[in-house]
């Protein structure tokens, strides 16, 4: 999850650096963070 968080932060930084408003970058990052969180939860749950 630490890697996913770092990747999301990097993506937001890249998007905002390109001139994309930070708000739209966050609205893209939030659903992606939720999806990644659900994915990690299910992987952790089924692995045990």
Can you give a write-up of this model?
It is built from two helices and no strands. The protein is an all-alpha fold and 48 residues long. The protein has a domain at 21-48. The protein is elongated and about 45 Å long. The mean pLDDT is 76.
Quick description:
Keywords: Membrane, Transmembrane, Transmembrane helix. This protein is mainly α and 48 residues long. 88% of the residues lie in helices and 0% in strands.
Short descriptors:
single chain, about 50 residues, membrane, transmembrane helix, transmembrane
Uncertain residue ranges = none
Radius of gyration: 13 Å
Q: Tell me the series of helices and strands, N- to C-terminal.
A: HH
User: What is the beta-strand fraction?
Assistant: under 5%
Structural class: mainly alpha
The biggest beta sheet is recorded as: none
Ends distance: 17 Å
Bin the helical content.
over 70%
Apparent shape? elongated
Helix count from the secondary structure assignment: 2
Average per-residue pLDDT, rounded, comes to 76
Q: Could you tell me the number of beta strands?
A: 0
């Amino acid at each position: 999850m630490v890697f996913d968080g770092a990747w999301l932060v990097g993506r937001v930084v890249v998007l905002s650096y390109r001139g994309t408003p930070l708000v739209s970058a966050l609205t893209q990052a939030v659903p992606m963070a939720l999806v990644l969180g659900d994915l990690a939860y299910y992987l952790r749950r089924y692995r045990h």
